[in-house]
Amino acid sequence: MKEFIKSNKITYNLMSFTAFKALLIFSLLLEAPRSYNDIIEYFANHDYINEKISIDTARVYINSLRMAGCVIEKTNRAEGSKFVLISHPFELEIPPEQIKVFAKIYKTVSKNISIEELIMLEKFLRKLCKNIKNPEFKQILDKISPLTGFNIKLLEDLLACCRKKNQITIEYNSPHSGIKAMEIICDKMDFESSKLYLYGTSIEYEQSTYLQVGRIIKILDIKLIKNEINIHEIRALYTVNANSQELQLKDNERIVSINNNQTLIEAISSNKFALKQRILSFGSACKVIEPSDLREEIIETLKQMRAGYQS
Amino acid sequence: MKKISDKYNEACIKVFDMLKLLSNGTAKYRDIIELFTNYDNNETAAANVILNKYLNTLKIFGINISKTKNIYYLQNSFFSINLDEKDAKAFSLLKSSKDYLTSQKQQEFFDKFLRSIEMRLTKESKELVETESKQLSNINSEEYLNKYRDIILKCEICCYENQKLELCFTQENKAYKVMCSPREITFKNGKAYLSVFNHLSRQIFEVPVDLITSMKQMPVISKGNEVSVTVVYKIGNALAKSYCLKECETCDGKPDENGWLTIINHNEDFDELLKRLLRYGSNCVVLSPKNFRESMITAIDNTLKNYE
User: Fold this and answer.
1) Is A114 on the interface with B (CB under 8 A)?
2) Which of B8, B120, B246 lies nearest to residue A60, judging by beta carbons?
3) Which of A68, A171, B85, B121 could form a disulfide with B16 if both were Cys (CB 3.0 to 4.6 A apart)?
4) pLDDT value at position A2?
5) Optimal mutation site among A3, A24, A46, A64, interface B, most CBs of chain B within 10 A
6) Assigned fold of B4-74
7) Where in chain A is the domain with CATH 2.30.30.100?
8) 3-class SS shares of chain A: helix, strand, coil, % to 5
């Protein structure tokens, strides 16, 4: 307003002062509940209006806002006789067809971005939900978001620990031994079979480990100095019969050679259990070359699996 | 004389009616001018004066409205959603993902959705979004999407039209031809897949669109109530204690006398499920259906043969 009056681009008779005052009252109510006195005082102290209005005039403005589609309630005297804007015609309402398309995009995007970006998107969308009138948007988001139910602050803290490779103690709800404290050197967070895991090195077992983030209750402490641990790493070599371009290698894997659609992979891991799971998931396309003890363990597991189908 | 409780300001109603029209993002000049012509039976010329008066009022209040080719565009709103840098980045990410939608209609809906948010952002937030959008390289799969856009679009149309499909594709150097019902397009790791229901095996599976060699729509509409085969398997030992059910799974939560828990799986892609269950080793046994149980046994036997 200041700019317009200064530059004389506009004169008072080229605008509607009544409409302007109605807009001012509306924006006042958008900010917080207001009483007649609040409105009168605001007008009296306003730089350009600078006008004392009566209670009746203020009342007419409130009536007008109601007629324009605003739902305004008045609190009782004990609560200061304030006008509360319950709803208004300009609230953001997302039509069902737009919600449907958003859901489609979100489902796709969430599978193709990093966990860091996913958290960022989740926070933004939750912020947006507060500004959207119809509950369907939030309902859909709750249904499709892979982060629904997670404590976002905890995820952010864990992610920060992963970036710094921090050694932390967490309170963990173990399916085997109940709630207990666990120490882990954080490495990364990622989804596997639609579940979010924290990957790192277990101080207790001195090997790489992964924990379901949903079972982490809180971070108890972050160590300034990391423990010196002696990790026994296994170097495994296995062949996979598949197009090397189709193979989605893990961080601990690298391609050694490719020969007639047969890819030789080297994997380095301190977690034999995870390594075995990875090898088994390839099915008959995979054959362990070395080490021999891992090869024997895979054969033994396969025999036990086969035995499960004998009965 | 009217009671105070019945009195109202016409100017207030007019400006709000105009804003209501504009709050969809755009409003035609014709519709807005009609608003003022209808009040007091004003002539168009007089209505134009009133319109300018209200446009000025809104401008002074801080609401910017632009006009291009007889269409008014609301640039901002009463709402002031304030975004920080990360929010702006997230919004830019969402904006750049429009390419995942191949149907023009869906893109239009998505544009409207984005616009309804954008016009409610504070000036600073809009600037942040603009900066972030410039910095954000388009979705990584842009090249892939451009390459396969036509086939993805064709798949989208098939899903929409819901006619039975004769689908031909090649996988691991083998050619396949299946009669199926198209379900949806999904994206994983930046690649598009056509999810279909195979009528013969009564299972849902996903075909990478880049492996599709031909698609022929049949003159028969797919039934909506196609029931896929459910897979029943049991898990034991430590796995039974720590297992988290997937969205497509159910379980009564009661282990049998030997500690095995029975899981019922609906609609998961058979190949994906087979790989997942193989990972569980001897802690998992497939119970039904017979063909999936046989597939599991064959997979185990063939893997064992690798070591003979």
Assistant:
1) no
2) B8
3) A68
4) 42
5) A64
6) Arc Repressor Mutant, subunit A (1.10.10)
7) 152-223
8) 45, 25, 30
